[in-house]
Amino acid sequence: MINNLSPFLQENWEKSGFHQPTSIQETAIPLILDGKDLIAESPTGTGKTLAYLLPLLNKIEPQSQSLQAVVLASSQELVMQVYQEFQKWSEGSGIRGTSIIGGANVKRQLEKLKKRPHVIFATPGRLFELIKQKKVKMHEVKLVVLDEGDQLLIPEHFNTVQSIVKSTLGDRQVVLFSATMKAGTEKMAKEMTKEPEVIRIEKDELASSGEVEHIYFVAEPRDKIKLLEKIVRLENIKALAFINDIGEIEVFKEKFHFKELSAGILHSDMKKLERQAELKAFRDGKTKMLIATDVAARGLDIQGITHVVHVDFPKDIAQYVHRAGRTGRMGADGIVISLVTDREERELKTYCQELNITPQKRIFFKGLIAEPEQKARR
């Protein structure tokens, strides 16, 4: 399949050291090259970005001056992450791309548009503003990609995304990728696509995960912060902790800062540069924990996460799977920790039963994670 791609892509594939495509890449790339509309569900960490980026790059005509493809993602971080992948894979092709995100300087973005990009990577709100101002002309766009489609098709984004898709001509191709796909999302996706192929990849041996242990601690809501402090003090951890409320994240940050604990935060109310700095510190191992909302951490590919912590209990099983999928990637082992109240413990067991997982109850003993019996034996 890779042999059917342009020479520059084959060359970059060689350089990347990948041996063979993952299941989602095997299945999706030929369909996209074929011009089919596509709705694809594949777990976190299975190589979805390249599944659309490689055929997209293959379709671009570098000698043309027109905008030919648009990639939409729900968060600034995800847009920038995909844009970085584009820069790497478009090397030697003459294909121009740019990123357009909310919160960034509009003047600078208009300057970038003057360089006539072939591909735009964008958050929906800002791109739609520029389309309305006639700064972005969509009539020659042949391919629209919705990355983390289930997040783009939530009520607050749906109309904007739909308007962006409608601003292209009728013969455009629309592809949507997501790690989890609810029936409602699929229905909305079908409204935006023409006779789409629907593919579902359940597990990928190539992108195989290592052993992931699921454990939990029982605590009252107010005591969860104390448990998180103990977790951040563990040795050799790189933990991603999920909290739903932005105000709460700021409270945790203050307390951790005061105790000189190594943690950063990530949420959608932060300025672009702050978000980038916090992410960089976490990626580089300067901070041991990143406390984030689901929206901010959505789709981010951060290598080597050892622990995922549900501080706030996931709102549904899909969110549990999504968060848990951040650890145990590419053959590494990982631990998923849920901090639960008595009621949440029952819900956790229900989720895990559906997922064929047995969560183990744990306590802290002498600063380390231990089985309850260990303390009893002492």
Structural account:
- The chain is α/β, with parallel strands linked by helices and about 375 residues long.
- The chain folds into 2 domains: about 1-200, 3-Layer(aba) Sandwich (Rossmann fold); about 210-375, 3-Layer(aba) Sandwich (Rossmann fold).
- It contains 16 helices and 16 strands.
- The strands form 3 sheets. The chain has a 7-stranded parallel sheet, sandwiched between helices.
- α6 packs across α8.
- The mean pLDDT is about 90.
Kindly give the count of domains. Answer: 2
State the secondary-structure class: alpha/beta
- Overall, the morphology is globular
> Approximately how much beta-strand content do the residues carry?
15-25%
Give the biggest sheet: 7 strands, parallel
Give the gist of this structure.
This protein is of the alpha/beta class.
Core attributes:
about 375 residues; alpha/beta; Rossmann fold; 2 domains; seven-stranded parallel sheet; 16 strands; globular
